[in-house]
Design goal:
Layout: H1 2-21, H2 30-39, H3 44-51, H4 62-72, H5 81-93, H6 105-126, H7 153-160, H8 173-181, H9 190-198, H10 201-207, H11 213-234
Helix pairs in contact: 1-2, 1-6, 2-5, 2-6, 4-5, 5-6, 9-11
Length: 235
């Protein structure tokens, strides 16, 4: 489990570096972004030691735990005071449903980069939980049930309305797929949208959803929205 989280962290760092490389306003914040990416899951390690689980809802908020660990250590001492605050904010808030309104411009920008990078790899990791034939499906998410057809209608409407789905409302594996699909509306940088498209992972996610009439309409909307965003980013 520790090795898995280390590999995740390094993939997130890679995504962060790619976003920075093609986003000139981020050049001056590259140090803060990369340090935040390296440390964003620091809270996962005591989580797995104490609970043998990475489920925040059954254990603890790993982002808040990680921020406390980083703050109490001397890891950030070589950095300017302002950069330390930016890194701590990114670690603390990288998993929240909605970014706080009271962050400064630079702290918000760094957090947005980290959240995009983290979501890209989280989507990659989550796909295996939607396969009922994979033993990891048992770890789908605490309290959720895999079913090929069942879903919560209100969550389908959330997705049709292009609204982020509250995690606490998820009951079925299809709800979880809907939850992940709506991350499309919580990304910020062209690189992240391109990765959704070119990696094929977003299409795999959509393919896991039922082929009923309402889901077909939703999948068409999501594909069209992604293509529209990509076309706009190229113009």
């Amino acid at each position: 489990m520790v090795d898995r989280k280390i590999r995740h962290t390094m993939r997130v760092v890679g995504h962060v570096q790619a976003i920075v490389a093609e986003t000139p306003p981020l050049e001056e914040l590259s140090e803060a972004v990369e340090v935040a990416a390296l440390l964003h899951d620091a809270g996962r390690f005591p989580q797995v030691v104490k609970h043998n689980s990475y489920d925040d809802h059954a254990t603890c908020n790993h982002a808040e735990v990680g921020a406390r660990i980083v703050m109490d250590a001397d890891l950030l001492d070589p950095l300017p005071l302002e950069t330390r605050g930016i890194v701590l904010s990114a670690v603390k808030y990288h998993n929240v449903a909605v970014i706080p309104d009271n962050l400064g411009t630079e702290a918000r920008l760094v957090l947005e980069v980290l959240r995009d990078a983290d979501k890209l790899d989280a989507l990659r990791n989550s796909l295996r939980y939607l396969d009922p034939d994979n033993p990891n499906s048992k770890a789908l998410k605490a309290g959720l049930t895999w079913d090929a057809d069942k879903f919560t209608p209100e969550l389908l409407q959330y997705a049709m309305d292009r609204t982020i789905i509250p995690y606490e409302n998820i009951q079925w594996s299809n709800d979880f797929a809907l939850f992940l699909s709506c991350w499309l509306y919580d990304l910020h940088f062209p690189y992240a949208f391109r990765q959704l498209k070119t990696s094929g992972q977003y299409e795999i996610l959509l393919g896991q959803m039922p082929d009923t009439e309402e889901f077909i309409r939703l999948k068409e909307q999501l594909r069209d929205d992604l293509d529209w965003i990509l076309a706009r980013s190229r113009s």
